[in-house]
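Input/output pair, single chain:
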Amino acid sequence: MKYTTKASAKSTVKITIKFDGEEWKAAQTKAYLKTRSRFAINGFRKGKAPKNVIEHVYGKGVFYEDALNLLFSENYNTILDKEEKKFIAVGEPEVSVDKLEDDGVTLVAVTPVKPEVKISAYTGMKIKEFAYTVKDEEVAEEVNRLLERNARKVPVEDRAAQNGDIANIDFVGSVDGVKFDGGEAHGFDLTLGSGQFIPGFEEQVVGMQIGEEKDVNVSFPENYQAEDLKGKPAVFAVKLNALQAKELPELTDEFIKEATGSETVEAYKEKTKERLAQMAKRRANDATENSILEAVAANAEAEIPQAMIEREIDGLVQKFEYQLMYQGMKLQDYLDFLKTTMADFRKNYEEQAKKNVLNQLIISQLIKDEKIEATEEEVEARVAEQATSVSKTTEEYKKNMDPRQFDYIRNDIIITKLFDFLKANNEMYVEE
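Output:
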């Protein structure tokens, strides 16, 4: 087997693979041995007919397709391994037969490869840096959420519905007098003021008395997910079955200790503020890194193969599918509800996928250009930190580590070093 590689259009490489007559003949024999059980020939037990007899009955090329597949599958990955310093395949190749004769065959594979990124500038730029300060109001909101989670629900019978109540309702929705899918429910618990329903619905339930029936008139938002309902006026026939109010516990040291383990209200607030500060720091760091990448991407060019974009879309769709699963919904049911196809749904992610892939390529290119690495000492130090956090010795912790965890730690150190370098070599400013 001999092969040549040549850079081609749109970040692809053309790989021409030539096999001589002996290799081609051997591949056909291998294909015969692999597939002969498929053929039934009069006078022979199934799978026992000689190769030349099968070719006589079914035609000379009966084993060509399987032989070509064998030649390609047995050699293609070997070629990729040999050429990994020149290019990295990022998708499945388009394979064609250039020559097919008794004295040999030639296969051509056009393979999408990781593109080079041309970056005209990544230092000396003015880039926005983000910083978030935890406010007392945010701590108070966390305390209120804790109280809400521990609230008791008590029946209400002597007044009308008001914001904050849990209203148990029946409703049937219609547009132009015709019911629509997903617009009907019975015994549904709705927290008034939560914004769970379309604008205007909950506000009209407020003030209703238990047992009262009422038509609620609303309009679907222009950006509503169901195409046939966008912007349309609708009427919901609503009946209020029952009301419950939330009775919050008193905020005392005793309650806090029982609910959270903190000794006092103040201790819990301080602990909460520290947690929020850590979250704010991570959020600010993520926003700053995105800001840096946007600035660098504005000065970058890359011919991204569609295969890389499709793979990134696969990841984004899968992430969304997992989110739906946590809510007890299947992706296909969601698509059916939206009355859209998977192909159209995937198009929504195309621009984000292109941006993500470009950012990944930029990071990879800058790491290469700046020769950023993670030393074994740095990896060991990070492992030791993680071991300490779970009260284990480094050796104990390492025994249960998967090799991929080491790769993740190494990559995280490298990425951190890269962004530290970019922050140090650009003019970072915080917007007032």
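The first strand starts at residue 2 and ends at 8. The mean pLDDT is 94.
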